[in-house]
Amino acid sequence: MAQITVDKYVDHMPLHRQSQRLQRAGVNIAQTTICGWVKLVLIHLVALYELHKQYVLACRYLHVDETTIQVLDEDKKGTTHRGYYWLYFNSEQKLVLFDYQPGRDTDGPDNVQKDFQGHLQTDGYSVYDHFDKRPGIVLMGCMAPRKAH
What we know:
Helix content is 34%, strand content 27%. The chain has helices at residues 2-9, 15-24, 31-57, 107-112, and strands spanning 61-72, 80-90, 95-101, 118-122, 137-141. The radius of gyration is 20 Å and the shape is elongated. The protein has two domains: 2-55, no CATH class; 60-141, 2-Layer Sandwich (Nucleotidyltransferase, domain 5). By secondary structure, it is of the alpha/beta class. It has a five-stranded mixed beta sheet with strand order 3-2-1-4-5.
Protein backbone atom coordinates (compact mmCIF):
# COMPACT_ATOMS: atom_id res chain seq x y z
CA MET A 1 0.00 0.00 0.00
CA ALA A 2 2.85 2.36 0.81
CA GLN A 3 4.59 1.65 -2.50
CA ILE A 4 1.40 2.20 -4.50
CA THR A 5 0.75 5.48 -2.70
CA VAL A 6 4.32 6.72 -3.22
CA ASP A 7 4.22 5.70 -6.88
CA LYS A 8 0.96 7.60 -7.34
CA TYR A 9 1.67 10.82 -5.44
CA VAL A 10 5.47 11.13 -5.53
CA ASP A 11 6.30 9.52 -8.87
CA HIS A 12 2.98 10.52 -10.51
CA MET A 13 2.23 7.02 -11.79
CA PRO A 14 -1.52 6.53 -12.37
CA LEU A 15 -3.14 3.54 -10.71
CA HIS A 16 -4.06 1.86 -14.01
CA ARG A 17 -0.37 1.88 -15.02
CA GLN A 18 0.61 0.43 -11.66
CA SER A 19 -1.98 -2.31 -12.16
CA GLN A 20 -0.50 -3.06 -15.60
CA ARG A 21 3.01 -3.18 -14.14
CA LEU A 22 1.88 -5.63 -11.45
CA GLN A 23 0.19 -7.83 -14.08
CA ARG A 24 3.44 -8.00 -16.09
CA ALA A 25 5.10 -9.27 -12.90
CA GLY A 26 2.43 -11.96 -12.55
CA VAL A 27 0.51 -10.21 -9.75
CA ASN A 28 -3.14 -9.76 -10.67
CA ILE A 29 -4.82 -7.22 -8.39
CA ALA A 30 -8.02 -5.55 -9.54
CA GLN A 31 -7.73 -1.82 -10.07
CA THR A 32 -10.75 -1.35 -7.79
CA THR A 33 -8.80 -3.10 -5.01
CA ILE A 34 -5.81 -0.81 -5.56
CA CYS A 35 -8.13 2.23 -5.50
CA GLY A 36 -9.59 0.99 -2.21
CA TRP A 37 -6.11 0.62 -0.73
CA VAL A 38 -5.18 4.17 -1.72
CA LYS A 39 -8.41 5.47 -0.20
CA LEU A 40 -7.62 3.64 3.05
CA VAL A 41 -4.11 5.12 3.16
CA LEU A 42 -5.50 8.62 2.53
CA ILE A 43 -8.05 8.25 5.33
CA HIS A 44 -5.18 7.57 7.72
CA LEU A 45 -3.14 10.43 6.29
CA VAL A 46 -6.01 12.85 6.94
CA ALA A 47 -5.84 11.95 10.62
CA LEU A 48 -2.07 12.60 10.59
CA TYR A 49 -2.62 15.90 8.78
CA GLU A 50 -5.12 17.03 11.42
CA LEU A 51 -2.67 16.12 14.20
CA HIS A 52 0.13 17.96 12.38
CA LYS A 53 -2.14 21.00 12.03
CA GLN A 54 -2.66 21.01 15.81
CA TYR A 55 1.11 20.97 16.37
CA VAL A 56 1.72 23.78 13.88
CA LEU A 57 -0.99 26.01 15.36
CA ALA A 58 -0.04 25.31 19.01
CA CYS A 59 2.46 28.15 19.00
CA ARG A 60 2.39 31.79 20.00
CA TYR A 61 4.00 33.12 16.80
CA LEU A 62 2.72 32.10 13.38
CA HIS A 63 3.70 33.29 9.89
CA VAL A 64 1.05 33.02 7.15
CA ASP A 65 1.22 33.51 3.40
CA GLU A 66 -0.50 32.16 0.32
CA THR A 67 0.68 31.24 -3.15
CA THR A 68 -1.00 30.12 -6.36
CA ILE A 69 -1.00 26.58 -7.71
CA GLN A 70 -2.39 25.21 -10.97
CA VAL A 71 -4.93 22.46 -10.21
CA LEU A 72 -6.27 19.90 -12.67
CA ASP A 73 -9.95 20.51 -13.31
CA GLU A 74 -12.09 17.39 -12.76
CA ASP A 75 -14.94 18.77 -14.86
CA LYS A 76 -12.88 19.80 -17.89
CA LYS A 77 -10.36 17.13 -18.83
CA GLY A 78 -6.94 18.54 -19.68
CA THR A 79 -7.57 21.98 -18.18
CA THR A 80 -6.48 23.60 -14.95
CA HIS A 81 -7.74 26.31 -12.66
CA ARG A 82 -5.96 28.50 -10.15
CA GLY A 83 -6.01 27.30 -6.57
CA TYR A 84 -4.13 28.49 -3.51
CA TYR A 85 -1.78 26.94 -1.01
CA TRP A 86 -1.98 28.72 2.31
CA LEU A 87 1.27 28.22 4.20
CA TYR A 88 1.47 28.38 7.99
CA PHE A 89 4.93 28.44 9.55
CA ASN A 90 5.42 27.77 13.24
CA SER A 91 8.85 29.33 13.75
CA GLU A 92 9.09 28.02 17.34
CA GLN A 93 9.17 24.34 16.30
CA LYS A 94 10.10 24.94 12.63
CA LEU A 95 6.92 23.27 11.37
CA VAL A 96 5.06 24.09 8.17
CA LEU A 97 1.45 23.39 7.26
CA PHE A 98 0.15 23.53 3.69
CA ASP A 99 -3.59 24.03 3.33
CA TYR A 100 -5.14 23.95 -0.15
CA GLN A 101 -8.10 26.24 -0.83
CA PRO A 102 -9.86 26.93 -4.13
CA GLY A 103 -9.96 30.66 -3.40
CA ARG A 104 -8.03 33.49 -1.80
CA ASP A 105 -10.77 34.78 0.49
CA THR A 106 -11.03 34.62 4.28
CA ASP A 107 -12.65 31.16 4.44
CA GLY A 108 -9.36 29.24 4.37
CA PRO A 109 -7.41 31.13 7.03
CA ASP A 110 -10.53 31.60 9.18
CA ASN A 111 -11.16 27.87 9.29
CA VAL A 112 -7.54 26.85 9.90
CA GLN A 113 -6.87 29.53 12.53
CA LYS A 114 -10.24 29.45 14.30
CA ASP A 115 -8.60 28.50 17.62
CA PHE A 116 -5.22 30.19 17.14
CA GLN A 117 -4.09 32.74 19.71
CA GLY A 118 -0.81 34.61 19.57
CA HIS A 119 1.20 36.78 17.20
CA LEU A 120 0.23 36.42 13.54
CA GLN A 121 2.71 37.76 10.98
CA THR A 122 1.39 38.34 7.46
CA ASP A 123 2.01 40.45 4.40
CA GLY A 124 -0.26 43.39 3.61
CA TYR A 125 -2.99 41.37 1.88
CA SER A 126 -6.32 42.68 3.18
CA VAL A 127 -7.78 39.22 3.88
CA TYR A 128 -5.72 39.20 7.10
CA ASP A 129 -6.97 42.57 8.39
CA HIS A 130 -9.92 41.17 10.35
CA PHE A 131 -7.58 39.04 12.49
CA ASP A 132 -6.55 42.29 14.19
CA LYS A 133 -10.04 42.45 15.70
CA ARG A 134 -10.02 38.89 17.07
CA PRO A 135 -9.35 38.52 20.79
CA GLY A 136 -6.04 36.86 21.56
CA ILE A 137 -4.39 37.70 18.22
CA VAL A 138 -1.75 40.35 17.67
CA LEU A 139 -1.52 41.02 13.93
CA MET A 140 1.95 41.94 12.73
CA GLY A 141 2.98 42.97 9.23
CA CYS A 142 6.13 42.04 7.40
CA MET A 143 8.79 44.45 6.20
CA ALA A 144 7.47 44.44 2.62
CA PRO A 145 5.90 47.77 1.67
CA ARG A 146 2.15 47.78 1.26
CA LYS A 147 0.93 48.84 -2.17
CA ALA A 148 -1.27 51.92 -2.28
CA HIS A 149 -4.70 51.37 -3.86
